[in-house]
Every structure is written in structure tokens, then in C-alpha cells.
Amino acid sequence: MYFTTRFDSPWVRLAASMYMGYACTDLLLMALHTQLSTKLYVAHHCMSLYCSFIGMFYPCMAFYGNITIMMELSNPSVFLRYLLMDFGYKKTKLYVVNGVVMLVTFFIARVVVTAIGTFNLVKVMATQDDFYELPLQVSLCYVSGCLLFNSLNYYWFVLMCQGFVKHISGKKD
């Protein structure tokens, strides 16, 4: 499959603008409620702002704009997890079912999709001179975004797997 570096997709630009609003709102919430913010979440959201800015204003590599949106498909189960914990439902069947759904959706939406995206980015970098003609801020966005998001997603997935193994083995906190 051939991925083009120059492609203007109004739908990707629209999705990037909506994602930028989401990332701004999340950062504002983290600033107002510091218990929500960690260095990893702040780094994730700052890079998200940068990537969504690039997606909105540079007509290139629309495939990666879509990957960013695909990663967000795991968020409903992640957010529900926090709500269930906060409202005291940690020892319920719903919490366990949500944990399985979260693990599966996170694996598909963040681990598999980003691995495919990384593979394709490396392929584009290796086979297409067009990539090196992109503005520096654009190519920097794709490479550094790929590194940061992959690192964070794989780290968080490992933590989820460890929690799953603890639950299955019967070891409690």
C-alpha cells in the first residue's frame, strides 16, 4: 500500500480541530484539578496539541491524523474505569467487565494501530523522498509523536496487563 505524504483531507482537518479542543479542555481540567495531572498525561496532551495543530494546518499524511483519532476509541472504557473507582464500584462485576473491555480496546486502538502506523511511517521515511521535503515541524511531529505516543501507550498497556494478571491470580493490592 502506498501512503502519500501530500494529501489534503478536510475530514482529517476537522477531526484534528475537534481533537485539539478536547486536548485543550483536558489540559485546562488538569490545571484546575491538579490531582488529575501527572507528568505523563501533561506530556501526552501537550504533544496531542502539537500534533492536532499540524493536522489542522498542514495538508499532508492524513493517515496519521486518523491514527490519532483511532487511539481515542479506548477512552470511554478508561474514563468509566476512573468513575467506577471514584464512586466505590471497584469490587463489582461491572468493574471487572470494564477492565476486560478496556484492555481489549486499548490493545486494538493504541497498541496495534500505533504499531501499524509506526511501521508505515518507517516505510514512508525509507522509500519516499517526499517525506524529507515536508517542513521540519511536520516531520518532527510525526517522528516525535510516534516515539512519545508509542512509549506511553505501551507503558500503560503493560500496567493494564499487570493489573489483569494480579486480578486473575487473586493477588490484591
TrEMBL record:
Superkingdom: Eukaryota
Tell where it localizes. Answer: Membrane
Q: Which residues form the TLC domain?
A: 1-169
TM annotation in the entry = 12-33, 96-122, 142-165
Keywords linked to the UniProt accession: Membrane, Transmembrane, Transmembrane helix
Q: Name one GO cellular component term.
A: membrane
Q: Name one GO biological process term.
A: lipid homeostasis
Query: What name goes with this protein?
Result: TMEM56 protein
**Originating species:** Branchiostoma lanceolatum (Common lancelet)
